[in-house]
Amino acid sequence: TPILIWFRRDLRLTDHPALSAATATGRPVIPVFLCDEGVEALGAAPRMRLGLGVAELARSLEALGSRLILRRGAALPTLRALAAETGAGAVWWTRLHDPLSRRRDDGVMQGLGVEGRAFPGHLLHEPEAIRTGAGGGFKVYGPFFRALRARDPGEPLPAPSRLAPPRTWPQSEELAGWRLDAAMNRGGPIVAAWQNPGEARARERLDRFVAERIGGYAKARDYPAQDGSSRLSENLTTGEISARTCWHAGTAALDRGEAGAEQFLKELAWRDFSHHLLFHSPGIATDHWRPEWRSFPWAQDADSPLVRAWQRGRTGIRLVDAAMREMFVTGRMHNRARMIAASLLTKHMMTDWRVGLKWFEDCLTDWDPAANAVNWQWVAGSGPDASPFFRIFSPQSQAKAYDGKGEYERMWVAEGQAAPPATALSFFDAAPRSWGMSPRDPIPAPVLDLAIAREAALAAFRARPRPG
Ligand code: FAD
């Protein structure tokens, strides 16, 4: 009887344990992707980006003589119906660790009526594999990394050379009919042009990064105007490349003497760390991990003019404006820029990190339920392994240190430039007309005085109600 392989955030053929196991049985394999509750819950940019990845996966499967069957509907009834229709005796998938996916997958496992089986593959190591001496999950990154570093994730699995087809293929819906880019009314085609969708492009990106840049990565990754990091996050979050494949390339580079590779491994471990944290503390995506933050007197809500200026790249703090525009146009934001933009929102503007988390969730094509939440809580100071609240990034000193020549600012902020580059101008094509922005506007004046805002945030922090 056929096996249904239910693809979700594992849009690849290489190093796909569920797919390899299914191929090894010799049984017919029916690959399926659902526009289910998980997809419906996605923000505009990640949903659009997922669609690009699904299209690429369908093409790779067709090249193997197989197909990707597309169905729309809630996961459990849709899979049950498809299993009945095809006579499939099993549905196999790659395990996910966020609360929404877990709830859905548990329901599927219980109600499917045929065998349901979850395989590893989304992370380097499953949460059960990395534990403290006391048996729980790590809350601090340092010891987590040491424990992870001591374990070998194993060799990546090769892609199957052939998938046995079923006797007859079930009907498939059309991907275009799902209109996964519909919510990108702020420039879907512009964002799409910046992406590297699909397994083949992800692999190319990794190979080029390892061949050309990994040696200098530890330093170069901090400069937002440079192409110094791997830019694989969009591929990792859609599963177009496995973390294990990246890890393997990183350790091989380290063996060749590329010093920067160790930092790359550390960042891949941050990805696992955030997923393990989310697994052990599912509330971390929705609530302050440190309960004392529940009573912090947040000053702005989601609709306040300051938050709106932040979202629209119009704070007058040029590095932050560049960052917010880079994300709006490309679906990406440089890591250092993310930290600075998030710090301005949560500290100087005293805004609950969840307001920023939501905006990123809608705008980032690499949106990841674990990395987004854990990093926002890290910046805000409310998370388990967090930068303390009183350590407030100064956007000016950060700009001086990491964008000393203003290249990143000029790349993304057109106002005040006689001949702005195409990148800066593309923001005005992406931004809704209702924002009323034009490249000929004067340079926006700062919406707040950084020094006064910093002192106010620190005072509120010191005066915050404490537990007990
Ligand atoms: P590289 O520097 O090449 O790193 C390699 C890989 O390691 C990345 O692709 C990513 O998968 C992982 N990684 C790197 N840094 C982190 C980190 N701090 N936490 C977890 N994993 C990491 N990353 C996301 O993938 N999705 C998000 O939704 C997300 N939201 C963030 C929100 C905030 C406020 C901040 C400060 C960071 C966030 N990050 C998120 C982490 C980080 O900014 C991105 O992973 C990184 O910028 C991606 O670029 P890259 O692929 O070139 O990374």
From TrEMBL:
Pfam families: DNA_photolyase, FAD_binding_7. InterPro entries: Crypto/Photolyase_FAD-like_sf, Crypto/Photolyase_N_sf, Cryptochr/Photolyase_FAD-bd, Cryptochrome/DNA_photolyase_1, DNA_photolyase_N, Rossmann-like_a/b/a_fold. Binds 1 FAD per subunit. The record marks 298, 353, 376 as: Electron transfer via tryptophanyl radical. GO terms for biological process: response to light stimulus. Belongs to the DNA photolyase family. This is Deoxyribodipyrimidine photo-lyase. It comes from Rubellimicrobium rubrum. The lineage of its organism: Bacteria, Pseudomonadati, Pseudomonadota, Alphaproteobacteria, Rhodobacterales.
